[in-house]
Amino acid sequence: MEEKGILQAMPVMLAPFTDPLNHEVSEAAIQYGSQTLRLTKSMILHKFIMLMGKGVDAVFIVSPNVRLESEDCKDSGRHLIEFSQVDIEMKGKDKRAFMDLTEELYVKMIAGLKHTCPDELAYFRRKLTTPTRPFKVYESKELLRKYGEGWEGILSKASSEPFWVLDHTREFYDREDEKRRGYYHNYDLIYPEGFGEALSGGEREYVYDEVIRKMDERKMDREPYGAYLELVRQGKIPRTSGGGFGVERLLRWVTGSSHIEEVTLFPRVPGKHIVI
Length: 276
Ligand code: ASN
Hints:
The protein is of the alpha+beta class. It has 8 helices and 11 strands. Asparagine binds next to strand 6, strand 10 and strand 11.
């Protein structure tokens, strides 16, 4: 990150707004005086705000995320209700630029790990292959047609290297193509060998009318987002792209562990009683 001029910022844990997320998670909020403050689900909107800074072209944050996932995710092997995410965002860049950065990062990480930690990898009986660039790229709607709803698991199991999947109908903040409505300029990185999703991200929506249209389509309560929306309205939020990967999911993959609870000291698994 340092080599690329990506500045590290510290995370926030409480704010009036956080990532709305596109799937069902219970709200984690506290009442403080007259304010409702939400626990961070991701630093997404705060990343955009950080990039308003002059001379700040790219940022990353290693941030704790709290997502109260449903108990059905208990045995997925890859869900925690508290985890760490490395969130990255770059000003004035498109999706290919972010995908290139990610590929470079993953190749460096795996090659570096193999070089510096051969004993640890042997302990885990883990043979890692340094991924080959460019990573394969798929379109989500084609995968859906070919494999049905379970495409992610099927293709992940059948693959030996990480790959990209483009175009996911998700939150209001990912850019939807102006001419091709319903096409999203976003991406997921998927680990091979059945380990599933590693990272999600996209090019972002920064035009006020589009942001409002998409929030309304998703029937969102705009009130908590007031200060952020005002910045968008004033045109202060720049055009960016970015994404974030889960630290524990990365560790699970590189160690070849069957459940994510094996790679974190104080696992918070959905539906499991927390004792420490
Ligand atoms: N970090 C993701 C992104 O940058 C958002 C998320 O974790 N929901 O798009």
